[in-house]
Amino acid sequence: MRALWVHHWLKARRQRQAVQRRSPSHRALRAGIGLALVLSLVLALLSLTLAFAYAALTADLPPVEALETLLAPSTGTLTQPTRFYDRTGTHLLAALDGGVGARTFRSVDPGSSEAFSPLLVQATLALTQPDFWTSPGFALSLDPAPQTLAERLVSDLLLWREPPSLRRTLRMRLLAWQTVTHYGRAQVLAWYLNSARFGPQTYGAEAAARRYLGKTATHLDAGEVALLLAALESPALNPLDTPEGALERQRQVLERLLGAGVIDLPTYEQARQHPPTLLPRREVPPASTDAFIHQVQAALAENYPPEVLERGGLRLLTTLDEALQQQVTCALRAYFQSLGAVAAAEDPTCEAARDLPTLPSALWPAHPEELAGGAVVVDVTSGEMLALVEVDARGLPTSNLSRRPTGSLLTPFLALSAFARGMSPASLVWDVPPTSDESPLATSRYHGPERLRLALAGDDAGALTRLLEQIGVPTVAQTVRTLGVPLTVGDAAAFLTQGAPLTLPEVAQAYLPLATLGLGYRLPGWPESQPLALRRLEGSDGVLWMQGEPAQVRPLISAQLAYLVHHVLSDGEARRQRLGSPDWLDLGRPAAAKLGQVADGQTAWAVGYTPHYLVAVWVGYRPGAGGTALNPRLAAALWHGLMQYLHREVPASDWTAPPGLTLVNVCDPSGLLPTPDCPQVVREIFLSENQPTQYDTLYRRYPINRETGRLATAFTPPELVEERVYLVVPPEVSAWAAQAGLPLPPTQYDNIQNPSTNPQVRFSQPAPFAYVRGTVTLRGTATAPDFAEYRIQVGEGLNPRAWVTLTPASSGPVEEGVLATWDTRGLPEGLYILRLTLVHLDQRVETALLQVTVDNTPPQVEVRLPAPGQDLLLPTNGMLSLYAEARDAYGVRRVIWQVDGREVGENRTPPYILVWKATRGEHTLEVLAEDLAGNRASSGVLRFRVR
User: Which residues form the Glycosyl transferase family domain (predicted)?
Assistant: First the structure.
């Protein structure tokens, strides 16, 4: 019974529970519990997300205590201006203090005698943050611009490194709240007024009052307060730089102060009628280091806002050698004195002036008082700039560097681009006028065929212009940009005559990789276009911001290519051949140098280096002056003196040629292997893979009738024939060569003709003096009323000693038809005489002679750029330069370029360069060379990529 009762009880219980589960109240309870669980989970996830977000927001958040370190009245780092020191750290070069000296920090407590003017405090708050005393320090806004004084303070001093973003905006407002909470509003206001920017190098209201008004900020009237607040709102319109604009802004601020109730109407009228008396700008004579300091500031401005440097507290250890800077400055002064620009006044402390060469009066400009000049010295072993100065003709330093057109100073980088495309210092270039109809009087400016070495040494415009047109200005500009110097130039003519406007440091930076054989010095945070000028930068927080010693070293160009250019620039003999003597670029020790000439003659450059120092100088007329064209030797003399001073106690040393270069004897000027006919053999340097393998074809031996001076023919009496060696020029420059008096082979053949002029015995094909190859079809006429037979014989040379019969005697006449075929394959190449003999029935004989040259050897052709499988970078203008070499014993008629199986261009004269409108992707290239006989050769198909 008990067991049955328990069973019924359990069953009834289950039924009651089932009924309860089906009831609305029970279902609601369960839903509520589920919802609570979901909400709990969401809140947990939200809390976790917010925690992570807050952690990310506050990660590496600057502590607000840093403001006290920066702005403590007597110990704060911003109480001291930014200071620049020389490389030793012992000589102060400059301080960015705006001319007011050490900064004085003031309070906002009106009970203090050293407090800011109460009117200044009240007006500042009225115009910038009227709710300052009740604000929590931050604005409820996502506007990235600071809205409160606390936000401005932390934005300028704590978060200046961070780029604009939502994260920065939130961090700024968080820091502003923390600052107000931690230090109070009065302290925030005092810090703001002591650190806000009122103009360039003018931070804090006290500095602004002293610099603009000549008084302290403790007692200021309404007009003076309005002036300072106008500068606070628009620092660029400050009373020193724009006095009229500052006073106009001051009147506007006065109206706003009146409207805000800060001043009453009588005070307003008084301030309007009696504007503040502004201090005039102090004209401080520029120091010799000003240009250097400004250069450092400009370089740092690429990574640090100018306000950070000007605000103060930084310590910069520069690379400047102060003693050397003074020597360079006084040497420039002495140099201009020697030109008669100012009265000479010998400076016994200027040792560098003693090394300046004496300038002949013929080099003196007509108006030396209008000149200016500059110099930069760079340590080749470290890439550091040791001295930089520009002066006027009086020898007074200037504050800012000028950009000067470089002219031909950039031609070494044209050569560098050419060498990268397979050319060499020995490559043949043609220094001739752009057109053949130029006056003969102008031919003295041109040198005809020459090696690229001589064209570069002498700035031979004709040769360099032709080369630049083939390689392309964008290619050369890209080469210079590879060295770190931004370069934009116009057409080829402008490149050679004007160049690009560059500063002295930029020129030095471009040449430095030539002195280091391809290496460049880099410092993170320092622009690549400038030599290193900073060794150490300490922040206002005492932390090392930048360490410039030692600098990073990395290759910019291959050592072999840099050495090829260097080898030309160090060739004093090549310079003297073009520029004559005295050669002030010769130091009596291993050195390389280049003069720069500008078309208008208003600027002359000289740049050069040893393994120890690089010096670049310019001499020119100040802007707007102008004068007679300057001789580039003026710059060479100044460069010579500075280099001699620098190397007084430096042992002479030379560069070691890198592996991969070869010295080869070549024929001048073709740059090919010499033959017995080559009149001058020189030793030239090549990349090992590009050394010549072909023999000279520029000088050829011709048989000449010594009486007529014409080319001898088979009809010229042997006793009148002599061989002479001539220089062969392309047809397009032959007119100029004749005008210039260059000995050229005669183009006309001897007029001694075949005694038989019978039209019935003659050759009609090939043409007289033609180049032939392979199997030659001989056409012509051999007929007569009493015809018996004809035969054709061939003899080698101009006056054959033996004749070979091509065909047996023929019994049938021929009239303008095929006389015979001649297989020239296997014959020695050169001059041959074909003789057609007609025999009459009465055994009378008539002959006709034909002179031809057999050439069965195809030309040689090789692609130098690109190499098989090479990746080429597509320039911004889409033009790529392709380079090939082609040679033939008798002359190349043309070179044909085929890209992707399609002909895209041809050359008729060397150098064989194609400027090709390229497209990205995989490509094939084949170059065909055709000689005068019609033989063709192929470079083979190579594949390359443009990316």
Answer: 148-257
